[in-house]
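Support reply, case 0932

Customer input (verbatim):
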Amino acid sequence: MCNGKVIFVSQREAETIHPEPGVAMISITDPGKPLAELGSWELIYRDSFFDGGYSEDAIHIHKDEFRMRYCSYIDSEQAEKLKNFISQLISSGVNKIYVHCYFGRSRSGAVAKYLVDQFGFESNKPIESPNMTVYKLLCNPVRFEPLIQQYEQAAKAPKEEKQPTISQKFVDLLMVALGLKK
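Our regenerated output:
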């Protein structure tokens, strides 16, 4: 286990921190918003996704439209890139990592929780409300992919025409006879 320190802060606080040699900054901003003004960090990772979550239930509800509806939330590819960046930092001996999101609580809290749980980092403050979707995807970036892909593949599959049952045919004939259907 690493004896590192993770400092998670708001974007406003992060913009006042001066870059330090051998120290990393992970910057998470909202889509469509300007990048944080952070200076020239030697080790910096930037990404943009909303502070929102989803679960298997959301995937079941939205089916093959899930990616479109949640396109601005963290996805497996973003989680994999962030996880790899963190792994490279740890492998190279970096033991101090700053993380920021807009308010410095949820998305950055999820990254801090990941560093604490997976690498034994110490946090600068209690992690009270981490974004659990971000955290779960850092732990397992492809966590939701099989289910998402199942719905996407089902939507692309040729549709089988269902043959009407005898009772459906009878109801149709009855409705035609009564003049309710043509």
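We compared this against your earlier run and they match. Two observations from our side: The chain has a mean pLDDT of 93. The first helix runs from residue 11 to 14. Please reopen the case if you see a mismatch on your end.
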